[in-house]
Amino acid sequence: MDEVTARYVELCRADGSGLSRAVAEAELPGCLRDARLLARPLFADEPELRAAVDDLLALFDVLVSLPDRLFDGDVERYWAALGGEPRLAPLLRRHAHAGRPADRFGRADLYRDEHGRFALLEFNIAGGVGGFELGELPRSLEAVPAFAAFAERYALRHVRTAERVAATLRGVAPRPSPVVALVFAPGALPRYRRPIAPTVAVLEGQGLDVLLGELGDVRGDGGKLFVGTARVDVVLRFFTVDDTIGHEDGLAAITRADEKGTAVLWTGLDSALFTNKGALALLSDPRCDAVLSPRERRAAERILPWTRLLTAPLVDRCVEERERLILKPCRGFAGSGVVAGWACPEREWRDALRDAAGGGFVVQRRVVPRPEPVVDPGTGATEDWTPVWGLFVTPGGYGGNAIRAQRATGGDVIGYSTSTETLATVAFTRPADAQPVG
What we know:
This protein has 16 helices and 19 strands. The chain is α+β, with helices and mostly antiparallel strands and 438 residues long.
């Protein structure tokens, strides 16, 4: 446990410290009033977090270059190697790079192991990642006197994700005061309108004009892009490549405007090529060694656990190493389809492997996460929680964090949208040269 965490937990246990109730007493902005929040923030030494982000950025650049490095630019062959659906390959080939470098934007989900090292679980390279609003929590905490005094003592810092996201969207927009459309799959908006409300609120709080729509609402007119009757400058994509099948008119309008420079699709459909967990498996595979620089190889070794595309010849080895492996669908989300070898009987694990072999799944070496002690403000009891660290990356680099956590006695999949037992928080960082004051 680091010094800041140890001291924070010690003070939370002390009568009258005020820290144990800092989150409960914070005056939250509207975007966080319905959030399920952990009773305290987390802490990290800034050099350690920044080093992890540097490795993530290095891996990002490698990931988006894998089709060129390993498959001579043949996107369809690359997609087939990931076990991707053949029907999507031509569409992805047409949209690969869209004439420009892949958009550096997304959220990496990581564990910290027992030694405090960050280990990458998945890299969500897409505009529609969640958690922007959690970057507003630090300001609320700093308005609580007990927390403000603690933060000053340790020179704690944070990054407002919404500021970085808004700066990114303004930076790519064709007009100085852009209209940003959050565009969803056809028929999906009623289901997502409430969950997406915090994202809308936090972006509007940054002065952006935000509207919601579906692919069927999108049209082009005179080279410009419209959602309904409103002209838009940036489409923040909340639809997948699958969702465009049968709705080519809306996609075509977005693509034409993007090519003309009158609007921007953020992120492009080509991000589906790299957010796929199979891309991490290729990066972890020995055949990739020959195309990595020494710096890139070291970054991969530091932050990426052993990961492989599951094929039939690999099944027997995975059966033997059941206690150390987890099975994940390449294109799954929110924990769907994940099987932890250590949490199921051997026969069930073997059957899951055989069913998944060659069908677009990866196996990954288990990372045992370091628990974080949290003092319950109501009972005073201390419990261990397991956090997933979500680190945002933007064209400007590190874009803040959003953390979800569950009790260490919970399951092996930590999903905020799938379990009400999962809570959210953020992490503050402590500069390398900071010494406690007072």
